[in-house]
Predict the 3D structure of the following.
Amino acid sequence: MALSSSSEIVRRPHPLEAAIGDTRVLLDVEQGLYFGLNGIATSIWQRLEQPVRVSDLCCSLKAEYEGEAARIEAEVLAFLALLDARKLIEIRA
Amino acid sequence: MTDGLLCGWRIRSDIALPELLDWQGDDRIPDLVVRLGEVDERLPEGREISPLLQIDGTGAGLLQVPMVGRFLVRPSGGITIAPQPEASEAEIRLFLLGSVLGMVCHQRALLPLHASSVAIDGGAVAFCGPSGMGKSTLALRFAQHGHSVVSDDICVIETCEPPRVRPCFPRLKLWRDTMEDAALSPEGLERNRRGQEKFHFRAPHAGVREPLPLRAIFLLRRAGSGEGEGIQRLAAPLDIMAALEAETFRLQVGHALGRAETLFQARALIANDVPVYRLTRRADAQPDRWLDAIAATIRG
């Protein structure tokens, strides 16, 4: 599924999670891979617990972090593409 | 025969377990009971985890060691051993207090780390690393300087805050040359396996009975050519998590018993609470050279 601002995103159920210091550590047991999330990445990850539309996600981030809407969207899409490539999220229509 | 103490458990056994401390606790029913008896070749509805190990849906495990015997390990704590006629007692104990102990830890949601550990300043300090990297040798050298041996090979960690080590027994498996280097003689000691130049050495100091807080973990590694020696603290959470995973004793058994999440959370707890160091040494480094540096590192 192609990723766009109208996509709905949800986490895949697999990864185990823990906070170590300021880092959010994820482990995908099936793939045997660790991921570390810092700062805003953690904040985005936490917002993916329930299915969310990319545009809504960007709005809520804009409300919390200062930033230009177009830049936030570009960075969010890039980060989501990364999570998708690592099979940590599912992209719905 | 009196009951023994193993990782806080009361253990009653048909075979003598001379490396264990005597049970001196309350009059509870034994937590682990070791019997000699018949053990089938197949665990009904067992899944093969490796050619030597099956695990079933109830969490029972069947370990089959060629030339040694079969070990049936029930989650209730009942352990039945069917030894091969040629097996020595030391070999049976080697697997009972090794692979079987690891399985019991996973059944009971403890984290068994592949490590030797000693008591320093009222806490346990663990040494991990590949075979031959000097885990037991370091423990021996600390023992010769008056420290108690808390575990050899399997360091059993209870994941509370702070994480604690449940003492195993004060016995080290040592190669002949390691003993001779430390001015000890293997004469009269039991061999680890028939024909092997590795011996069961009981550390001279009274063993530890109560759990100790885990003070530090040292990952032993050999210096590459041109690389310097030294102690370096791991800082990146992912490095610590991956190292602790790599050092988990029989990780696949833990996963087969459904402990992936518990083990992950245990690693995270340690990563948050306990410093993990990489200790890089040259192959020819004298073990004693590092004792003071290790103690100084722990004391900060």
Notes: The interface with chain A takes residues 236-238, 240-242, 255, 260-261, 264-265, 268, 271-272 of chain B (CB under 8 Å). Chain B is about 25% helix and 30% strand. The two ends of chain B are 45 Å apart (CA to CA). Chain B has a mean pLDDT of 94.
